[in-house]
Amino acid sequence: MSDFTFSVILSNLLWATRWTILLSLIAFVSGGLVGLAILFARVSKNRALRLLTSFYIEFFQGTPLLMQLFLFFFGVALFGVEVSPWAAAWLALTFWTSAFLSEIWRGCVEAIPRGQWEASGSLALNYIEQMRYVILPQALRIAIAPTVGFSVQIIKGTALASIIGFVELTKAGTMLNNATFRPFLVYSLVALIYFCLCFPLSWYSKRLEGRLNVAR
Amino acid sequence: MSLVSIRDVRKSFGELEVLKGVSLEVARGDVVAIIGRSGSGKSTLLRCINGLETFHSGSITVDGMEVGGGKTDLRTLRRHVGMVFQQFNLFPHLTAAQNVMLAPTVVTKAQKGEARHIAETLLAKVGLAGKFDAYPSQLSGGQQQRVAIARALAMRPAVLLCDEITSALDPELVSEVLRVVEQLAAEGMTLILVTHEMRFAREVGTKLIFMHQGRVHEQGPPKTLFAAPNTPELAQFVGSLH
User: Of A53, B85, B99, B223, which has the most beta carbons under 10 Å away?
Assistant: First the structure.
C-alpha cells in the first residue's frame, strides 16, 4: 500500500487526463466538422436530405452514448474489422457530437430572419454561398455560447470510453482503485479533475451568453 | 418586345387563391406602379417575378428567360432581376460597402478593386459616399434602404423590383429614398414598384396597375387613371386615400 502515495495516485491520474483532453478535442473537432455537413443537409430545401439527417440526429440523440460505443467497438468487429478502443471511442464520440452540435446550430441558423435568406437569394447567391457569407457568420455569434457549453458534455462523455478499455481519466481511476482500494480518495480526485476541466468551460459559456444579451 | 411578360399567373396559399390569373406586360424603361389594398396580391406577384414565390399556372418571362417550372436557372434569372424589400434586409454583419460588394465578388467573381469601384460608384449614386465603412446599425432607415438599392444595382439588373420600400420608414425619410428611385427612373431603369405613395406613382410612373382581389382590375397611364378611374373599386381606393 505504501507504494501508492497520494502524489503517485495524483500524478498517475493527471497523466491519464491528457487522453481525456485529447479524446475530447478530437471528438469536438471531427464532430464539429461532421456536424457542419449535417447542418447543411438539415436546413437545405431537399426533402430527402432533411429526412435522412433528421433520422441520423434522432438515432444518435435517442440512444445512449454507451450503446453507440459498444456498437462501434463490438459491432464493427463482427465484420472482421479489428477496432481499437481508440478508434471506436473516436468514431462514436464523433457521430454523437455531430448529432448534438448540428441540432444546436440548426436552432441558431433558424433564428436568422427569413429576410436574410430572401435578400441573399435575390442577389443570385446559391445555397452554399448564402450559408457561407450571410447566414453562418450571423448564426456563429449566437452559436458560440451553447457550443462551448456542449463541449462540457463531450468531456464527460469521454468517461464512457473507459468501459471499452480506453485508458483515460476514469479508466485510470478504476485501475488505481483496484490497486489501492481507496475508492473515495481516487474517485474524489477523478471528479475534481473533471470539474477543473469542465468548470472553466461552462463559466466561459455563461459569460459569453451574458455578453450577447448585453449586445442586444 | 416586353422585358417582363406575365401571362395568366395563378397562385394559391392553401385554399386561398391570391393570384387569379394575372397578366401584365412591362417594356424596357417602364416604371410600373402596382397599387391596391393589402391582400390584393401585389407583393406576391412581385415575388413571383424573381422566384421568391412559386406559382401554380401561367407563365412569367424576364428578358426571354422563363421563370418557374423547375427548369429555371434561378441564379441566372436573379442576376437580371434586382429586388429591394420593405424591411431593407441588409446584412448586419457587413458594412454598407461589403453589402454592395457581396454579389459582385461571390457571384460574378469580380476582382477586389473592381468590386470596390462598383461599391464606391453606387454608394455615391444613392448619396452615401461617406458611409462606405458604416454598418447598417449605424445608419438611419432611409440610409439603409438606399444602401439596399445600391446593393440591388450591383449586379446591373435589367429590372428592379421594389416591394413597398418606403412603408417601414419614418415619414421624413421617405423622400430621400423616393428621390433615388426617381433618379433611376430618369436614367431609364425598368422598375416595378408595389407602393402606397400615390403621388410618386402619378408623377414618376409610366404605367399604373390597380390590383383587386387577385386580379389586375384596371391599368393604364397613371395620370389618366387617377383623374378618371374607370371602375368604382379604383375610384373608391383612390378616394379613400384623400
Answer: B99
* Partner-chain contact B52 A116, CB within 8 Å: no
Question: Which chain A residues are Cβ-neighbours of B92 within 8 angstroms?
Answer: 138
Q: Does pTM surpass 0.90?
A: no
In chain B, which residue's Cα lies nearest the Cα of A137? B93
Which residues of chain B register pLDDT less than 70? 69-72, 242
Query: Given this model, what pLDDT does residue B3 score?
Result: 94
The pLDDT confidence band at residue A82, using thresholds 50, 70 and 90, is confident
**HEC profile of chain B:** CEEEEEEEEEEEECCEEEEEEEEEEEECCCEEEEEECCCCCHHHHHHHHCCCCCCCEEEEEECCEEECCCCCCHHHHHHHEEEECCCCCCCCCCCHHHHHHHHHHHCCCCCHHHHHHHHHHHHHHCCCHHHCCCCHHHCCHHHHHHHHHHHHHCCCCCEEEEECCCCCCCHHHHHHHHHHHHHHHHCCCEEEEECCCHHHHHHHCCEEEEEECCEEEEEECHHHHHHCCCCHHHHHHHHHCC
- Cβ distance of B102 and A123 shorter than 8 Å: yes
Q: How many CB pairs under 8 A join A and B?
A: 60
ipTM over 0.90? The verdict is yes
pLDDT of residue A215: 46
d(CA B206, CA B232): 22
CB contact under 8 A, A115 and B87: yes
A-contacting residues of B 130-189, CB under 8 Å? Answer: 148, 151-152, 154-155
Residue A205 has pLDDT above 70, yes or no: yes
Q: What is the CATH number of the domain that holds A178?
A: 1.10.3720.10
What confidence score (pLDDT) does residue A211 get? 74
Nearest residue of A to residue B155 by CA position? A123
Tell me: pLDDT of A214 over 60.
Answer: no
Domain that holds residue A93: 6-215
pLDDT in the model for residue B69: 63
Structural domain contains residue A67: yes
One-letter amino acid at B227 equals A
Q: How many domains does chain A have?
A: 1
What was the pLDDT predicted at A75?
A: 87
The answer to whether residue A148 sits within a structural domain is yes
| Helices B112-125 & B141-153 angle (0-180, nearest 10) | 130
Domain assignment of residue A193, yes or no: yes
